[in-house]
Design goal:
2 copies of one chain form a homodimer. Chain A folds into 2 domains: 54 residues, Multidrug-efflux Transporter Regulator, Chain: A, Domain 2; 120 residues, no CATH class. The first copy, chain A, is globular and about 65 Å long. Chain A has 9 helices and 2 strands; from the N terminus they run ααββααααααα. The first copy, chain A, has 210 residues and is mainly α. In chain A, a hairpin with a 5-residue loop joins strand 1 and strand 2. Chain A has a two-stranded antiparallel ribbon with strand order 1-2. Chains A, B: InterPro entries: DNA-bd_dom_put_sf, MerR-type_HTH_dom.
Chain lengths: 210, 210
């Protein structure tokens, strides 16, 4: 198809598609003349991914390019690639504290949960900042709450990982979008579940069996 | 204690404490002379709350004032008050779509989960936006995933609600801070649980029993 048909198919202005081509977020089409190129389904799929990364996921063009490079070249060490792809997503990692033990709260929490602790993985800094904020507000996460949240989210992680495509390019794409796009879904569902639980309690329904 | 001791206790500059007093985010002390006032533990606690709302929670002064008014005057209908307090937190609700059915994806999702649907509760608009974003990225939430996330987050909500203080002022404060401050903890824990699950899989550990 021509660029105008591609743009229509993706629901984007032609100028935007040209911008993505210039920025090399979208691969070139097959030249059919000096001034025209043909595009196919692979371009439609790519546009959907680029649009998600620059839209709901909220990346800059430079950050999107980093993620797309990992989708295109997942390399041999898929685990490291997935980690790098997630690291490119917001929020940006907070700077470490004391060099000998940069993330003490996160380290202790992961130790309690029996999970791997890798200070180079940005979510560790993210957890440290979140735990410190709760603490300074006078609402530190109790050991009981940490254990409960940790168990529940390990359950979610197993569910997510079991559905990861085996093909490496698709695995990176699934991981990036599944992390960034499903996070807002989970937060909204938690707030709605609070509301639902509060309504049931007010109505005097019996609590669910745990 | 004097204002200087209060500021020191809260770890804030005196100018910041004075600003909170002027903005009526902090209640006045007891006048001890024409130019001095005495402050107590209630001021220290309040400063911790104000600092959390304006800092990690990310509210504007006007939004913080709305939340604090609900903490101070929870009223008779605690359920409505908690809803209003959570509604003051980011993200701001997206505008509704078609007036006859403004949030069709969220309505269908909550119907599937057997949860209350109240279009006036901002988390409904939040869920609608998140589901629409996932859909347009070509990664719609499957019925199976929705059921799984919904079950897990109802479990979290029951846990959270069971620990809500009975005293109304404290209940509003717990709900606001527990919503806003524990959300980043949960997101970081999910990312870390993904990493942990991926490491275990690469090592060839058996999957956990579901």
């Amino acid at each position: 198809m021509r660029i105008s048909a591609l743009a229509a198919e993706a629901g984007l202005p032609v100028a935007t598609v040209k911008f993505y081509l210039r920025e090399r977020l979208l691969h070139a089409g097959t030249a059919t003349s000096a001034t025209q190129a043909a595009y196919d389904e692979s371009h439609v799929r790519r546009l959907r991914l680029v649009r998600a990364l620059l839209g709901p996921v909220g990346l800059t063009v430079q950050q999107a390019r980093t993620v797309l490079a990992l989708v295109d070249e997942p390399g041999d060490d898929l685990y490291a690639t997935l980690g790098r792809a997630v690291s490119a997503l917001p929020p940006a990692a907070a700077p470490p504290g004391d060099a000998s033990d940069p993330f003490p709260r996160a380290r202790a929490a992961l130790d309690t949960l029996g999970q791997v602790y890798d200070p180079d993985f940005p979510a560790v800094a993210q957890l440290e900042g979140a735990l410190a904020a709760a603490e300074s507000a006078g609402m530190p996460i109790s050991a009981e709450r940490l254990a409960h949240y940790g168990r529940v989210l390990s359950d979610v992680a197993e569910f997510d990982l079991a559905r990861m495509p085996g093909e490496p390019h698709a695995a990176v794409e699934y991981t990036v979008l599944g992390t960034a796009l499903y996070e807002p879904v989970m937060l909204a569902l938690r707030r709605l579940a609070h509301q639902d639980a509060a309504v049931r309690r007010l109505r005097g329904d019996p609590p669910p069996v745990e």
